[in-house]
Amino acid sequence: MEPRRNPRTVIDPKVRQVGFFAPPDRSQSGLPDAASPVHASSSSPSGNSLSPVMIPPPRHHSDNLIPPLPSPRSVPHPAVPSSYTAASEFSPTAASSYSSGSRFPGDGDDVSFSPGRLAKENSVKVMASSVPTVSLVNKPPLNIAATDKAGAEVLNDRPKAPKEKMSKAERRALQESQRAAKAAAKAEASKGPAGTPGAAPAKPAKAASRKSDVASASVTASEKKGGDRPTEKERKKDVPHPRMQYDDTSRVEKAKRRAVVKQTEARNRVELFRHLPQYEHGSQLPDLESKFFQLDPMHPAVYKVGLHYLSGDISGGNARCIAMLQAFQEVIKDYSTPPEKTLSRDLTAKISSYVSFFTECRPLSVSMGNAIRFLKSRIAKLPLTMSESEAKTTLQSDIDHFINEKIIVADKVIVSHAVTKIRDGDVLLTYGSSSAVEMILQRAHELGKQFRVVLVDSRPKLEGQLLLRRLVAKGISCTYTHINAISYIMHEATRVFLGASAVLSNGTVYSRVGTACVAMVAHAFDVPVLVCCEAYKFHERVQLDSICSNELGDPHAIANVPGREQLNFLDGCAKSDNLQLLNLIYDVMPSDYVSMIITDYGMVPPTSVPVIVREYRREHLWM
Amino acid sequence: MMELEIELKKASDSLKSWDTTSISLTAGCDLFMRYVTRTSALEYEDFNSAKSRLIERAEKFGEISYKARRIIAMLSQDFIFDGCTILVHGFSRVVLEVLKTAAQNKKLFRVLCTEGRPDRTGLRLSNELAKLDVPVKLLIDSAVAYSMDEIDMVFVGADGVVESGGIINMMGTYQIALVAHSMNKPVYVAAESYKFARLYPLDQKDMAPALRPIDFGVPIPSKVEVETSARDYTPPQYLTLLFTDLGVLTPSVVSDELIQLYL
């Protein structure tokens, strides 16, 4: 065995810090060492420098753009229109307050730049100067309580800072200021005149300070005082992220406040999956059941379906989607528009609240997500002139059509295509329990084809056993095995039929955990893998691994084997710090392992999934 | 109008039944039917205008198919460079057109031709090429791997292009594609777009059989069986590009086109 590579520092092996991190909190005392811009997660004991997985935050490009600011600062060109609205409001008045002296030596360079850029640079320079003073310890302690004034004073009192400290602080400050300035520009748009008079009195007080840039700096300083959170959050809001990341505690807090289902977070969680929700199982059901008759905002049908999801009674993409849509049909039936509100908006809001309830019970599947999108688009497209009862009946019949066309008839089409691929003498292998595959096998048997089935199953759900029971009852000869025997049994199989929870745009198939394993082994043995999936489960997102988006199930289900007391070695160990149990529900299978996808649009190769998504969204606007 | 469609369907069926094994015939008929009837002209009240629209589209289809070979030949000129060696298998008129056009454009290349038993396609093709003054060399089918080193590209035609992007062609194409793939040589397929068929074979035996008796020259004892299948299926991962009248496509685009046309 080769000697282990020496880790550079001692790192807690449980903690993996992967990715890009924001610069550390300004409110921390002292200037954090630039060499270790560590954003330690709250539970991480390692506070020290770069772990091997860490990627240091990118240096801001403006670092190199502007030389570090010495204390005589440049007076920006009065005629220059600032790129920030805050700035522009003060430029006429500000110009007058300046003496013409103390030109920045680099001014000659400035003039050659375009005005907008000049203003930006200047403002950036100012930010650079103003912001670090908030965080630098060796600066004279400033009374930061007052917002605008403080900004002014800060600039006034700023002594010459040692150059190298400035550069690091400045770099980070530049970043922060850029962000803050952007936030300020936005805040200005919303705050309007509110911000400006506040900054105005501060402005004349300073002689040698920048004009508008100060104002925006003070605005940003005030925003910054609100904590780094608002600016970061606004920055995050610029880029919409599709799913909630459960390791972002602020968002989790917000979501919790609005939650109906009080879930307690599991304590002992695997670090890699911290972005996924994991709750203590079995604790909410009695509580929710007792609340059944006290729910005003929640429709009882929705509540019932939510409880079914929570307890695991309804599982499987089609079943969950149909149950949800039928609950929504009930909702629509009982719905009446409140006064002063339009049906479409109010109903959409109601549906959204029910959807968040469902998400709390159990994260939505792709099939459910697509159905909800369909429903919302239908509601939005209702003509305003329609009467309420007409609208309600239209929506209900639309839901009926959706269920019929996209699920029931689609399944029939899939079955008719798939049975053409089954020949006499075939040995068909399937994994878990998929409704589509079950229908295929039953139909093929009805048509009199001679084949046998190998059913592969896995713990902890053991879903295959129900399917096995039903197939044997029909008279199909079956072999049952667990997934640990997959490579043993694969040489017998001639075809592999698998179901899917979703198929993504790059052809990857998102389905029950273990399916990817079966497909991989089948590929290795050159057995064709046929994935049967209705087209409404196609999604335009792309996923490359099983980690970034998944669902975590009850970890204790792995530890306990029901009915076999002598095997429960892990009883009680689950609470130990050294043991973390991971129960993934889904996994992702790359498109190379899939030979063909059978959908209601026919048999297509996995590369054609985005084509179908494109053609059918466009034609039917999601239908 | 419906009557006309039924008539068309009957005619197409009878044409297809003349040679049930020909994939291109079946595919061509199906595509023709789809192309012609996939127009809103069928909803016109005036029968004559609808009929003339159908005839217009039919003639357009015929024109496209007819001109297809010229278009394919033009598109593939960029891929034939001076001094290259091309391996050809089977007698495809499209490939012949490609090579003819290249020769007319004064490109210097040479062709290796497989014998193509039992149809002796290689002999026919090498005859044609000799007439064009293109240097030709004949190989027996087993010598393909032996010569693959000196080959720059492989050119084949297709009986049918299937939905996965693979092709059904004369027996031996799969072998050649495998060898070429393992030695990193590109395999180019020249096929007209009416050959796109809605089939999806999973393996070699998953197609309708097309049998052709093989004459070994000596009598075979009755206890010995002979594999008489005339064609095989080449999966899309062994093909590099498809030259069609719709353009130069990768195999995954075939399904795209079929979905757009059929659905």
TrEMBL record, chain A:
It comes from Punica granatum (Pomegranate). InterPro entries: IF-2B-related, IF_2B-like_C, NagB/RpiA_transferase-like. Residues 34-52, 88-102, 180-207 have a biased composition (Low complexity). Residues 67-79 have a biased composition (Pro residues). Keywords: Cytoplasm, Initiation factor, Protein biosynthesis. Its main location: cytoplasm. It is found in: Cytoplasm, Cytosol. Coiled coil: none annotated. It comes from the Eukaryota. Belongs to the eIF-2B alpha/beta/delta subunits family. GO terms for cellular component: cytosol. Residues 1-116, 138-261 are annotated as: Disordered. The keyword Translocase does not apply. This is Translation initiation factor eIF2B subunit delta. One of its GO terms (molecular function) is translation initiation factor activity. Residues 1-15, 155-174, 222-253 have a biased composition (Basic and acidic residues). Component of the translation initiation factor 2B (eIF2B) complex which is a heterodecamer of two sets of five different subunits: alpha, beta, gamma, delta and epsilon. Subunits alpha, beta and delta comprise a regulatory subcomplex and subunits epsilon and gamma comprise a catalytic subcomplex. Within the complex, the hexameric regulatory complex resides at the center, with the two heterodimeric catalytic subcomplexes bound on opposite sides.
Automatic annotation (TrEMBL), chain B:
GO terms for molecular function: guanyl-nucleotide exchange factor activity; translation initiation factor activity. One of its GO terms (cellular component) is eukaryotic translation initiation factor 2B complex. Belongs to the eIF-2B alpha/beta/delta subunits family. PANTHER family: TRANSLATION INITIATION FACTOR EIF-2B SUBUNIT ALPHA. The lineage of its organism: Eukaryota, Viridiplantae, Streptophyta, Embryophyta, Tracheophyta. It holds the Pfam family IF-2B. It is found in: Cytoplasm, Cytosol. Its main location: cytoplasm. Gene3D superfamilies: Translation initiation factor eif-2b, domain 2, Translation initiation factor eIF-2B, N-terminal domain. The keyword Chaperone does not apply. This is Translation initiation factor eIF2B subunit alpha. It comes from Punica granatum. Component of the translation initiation factor 2B (eIF2B) complex which is a heterodecamer of two sets of five different subunits: alpha, beta, gamma, delta and epsilon. Subunits alpha, beta and delta comprise a regulatory subcomplex and subunits epsilon and gamma comprise a catalytic subcomplex. Within the complex, the hexameric regulatory complex resides at the center, with the two heterodimeric catalytic subcomplexes bound on opposite sides. Keywords: Cytoplasm, Initiation factor, Protein biosynthesis. InterPro entries: eIF2B_alpha/beta/delta, elF-2B_alpha_N, IF-2B-related, IF_2B-like_C, NagB/RpiA_transferase-like.
